[in-house]
Design goal:
heterodimer; A: 112 residues; six-stranded mixed sheet; five-stranded antiparallel sheet; 0% helix; 61% strand; B: 113 residues; mainly beta; seven-stranded mixed sheet; four-stranded antiparallel sheet
């Protein structure tokens, strides 16, 4: 069974700093990787997807994928208090084609 | 605008009652999913569907059922509600099996007394 592991945190960073969130996965055949942000009491919201090794940047967010090491990370530059949320890593493809497996999420707190 | 909606948003029921949670999407997506989210367990897949008349069990399907009679709707039924089914339920959809990006509904908070 595919597993996706995240450090549950909480991860606390000061405003303006870089927040680094990490995720590892067990299925080597996985092909698609996603980061969702979930505010308290709300539904998950897609913020990044990545499919190829390397970095993908979108505004203050950078997703990094290393398939050989089976990890994916999310960097948030110039962190803001509004970034405080739970970040969910999701992995698709491989043995569960068409479905996503989610990690338990990392709680991020950005303090002024 | 296309969207995915869930109803009711909040539900209180009693043990043993049958409960149906609705999910409706207007994106014309083939794939629809039901998850439950509990503290310490993250999002767990209950049932999913890749198209009309197609339904599949997820990792925590016991006590739940779904049916897919059209593209837009995937209702989730709790046959006989149990206190262990108190949770937040999310519906999600994705275009097709080649695109795994999922978009979530607002969720339903269910309390079983």
């Amino acid at each position: 069974q595919k597993e996706v592991e995240q450090n549950s945190g909480p991860l606390s960073v000061p405003e303006g700093a870089i927040a680094s969130l990490n995720c590892t996965y067990s299925d080597r055949g996985s092909q698609s990787f996603f980061w969702y942000r979930q505010y308290s009491g709300k539904s998950p919201e897609l913020i990044m997807s990545i499919y190829s090794n390397g970095d993908k940047e979108d505004g203050r967010f950078t997703a990094q994928l290393n398939k050989a090491s089976q990890y994916v990370s999310l960097l948030i530059r110039d962190s803001q208090p509004s970034d405080s949320a739970t970040y969910l890593c999701a992995v698709g493809g491989g043995t569960s084609y068409g479905k996503l497996t989610f990690g338990q999420g990392t709680i991020l707190t950005v303090h002024p | 605008d296309a969207e995915i909606t869930q109803s009711p948003r909040h539900k209180i029921t009693e043990t043993g009652r049958q409960v149906t949670l609705a999910c409706h999407q207007t994106w014309n997506h083939n794939n629809m999913f039901w998850y439950r989210q509990d503290l310490g367990h993250g999002l767990r897949l209950i049932h999913y569907s890749y198209g009309v008349q197609d339904t599949n069990k997820g990792e925590v399907s016991d006590g739940y059922s779904v049916s897919r009679s059209n593209t837009e709707d995937l209702p989730l039924t709790l046959e006989s509600a149990a206190s262990s089914q108190t949770s937040v339920y999310f519906c999600a959809s994705s275009p097709d099996r080649g695109s795994e990006t999922q978009y979530f509904g607002p969720g339903t908070r269910l309390l079983v007394l």
